Amino acid sequence: MLDKHQFKLDTVLVENGNKLYKIEILKGKDYVGLNTPDIYNEGFEAKGWLYIDWGSYAIKKVEYQLVAASENQKKRSKSLFGTLVNHKLIMTFMEYQERMYPKYIYYETPKLVNAGDRSSDQVDKDGNPTQDKSDFYYNTVQEIVFTEIIQDPLLISEAFNKNWSEDIFSPRPYHPEFWENYNVLLESEEEDKLIRDLSKRVSLYKQ
Q: In what order do the strands lie in the sheet with 5-15?
């Protein structure tokens, strides 16, 4: 870990009356690699922040990026995606009964529309790109929100006896009946009012 990452105390923040260490994540002497099968996912350096509780030293939040750093990876990233940031991860944690649990996970990475298509590299006689690179790639975003902590051994046992996958990002079938009763996360009162207004409009439209 310390060969590929270095850490530096930046400042101390106050959140809801609690102090947090804000620690910067810096590149180490070696590159970070992901060893992804069939994809060159090597030659990165880490950048980001750790937010750590003053009293318990528990990690409250992680902001982590992998940025192209080796010559090969910089050429690849710039050529394919027009950016050096290849992976972005955000994780927040919540405390429950003196233990920390994941609360929110966000992951973003660029993906090629047509793998192996390098026609976006073509330039005119003046050296200007002949095509917009953004037409050749897109950014995928995956988010997971944890809204409940279950510790009942019986419920946990029943859950694991079902068809369970360790890959939390794997595709799942869509179940409309689930979303009918699922709690909606709202960021503000304005969004709550907006949703109610839109729901009222839809109801009137149907009438």
A: 5-15, 18-27, 44-53, 59-68, 85-96, 99-112, 137-145
Number of structural domains in the chain: 1
What letter represents residue 153's amino acid?
P
Helical (H) or strand (E) element with 138: strand 137-145
Q: Is pLDDT above 70 for 137?
A: yes
Q: How far apart are CA 138 and CA 140, in angstroms?
A: 6
- Torsion angle of alpha carbons 174, 180, 182, 186, nearest 10°? 110
Tell me which residue range forms the domain holding 201.
5-206
Q: What's residue 147's pLDDT?
A: 86
Residue with tokens 């980001």: 48
**DSSP percent split of the chain into helix, strand, coil, nearest 5:** 25, 40, 40
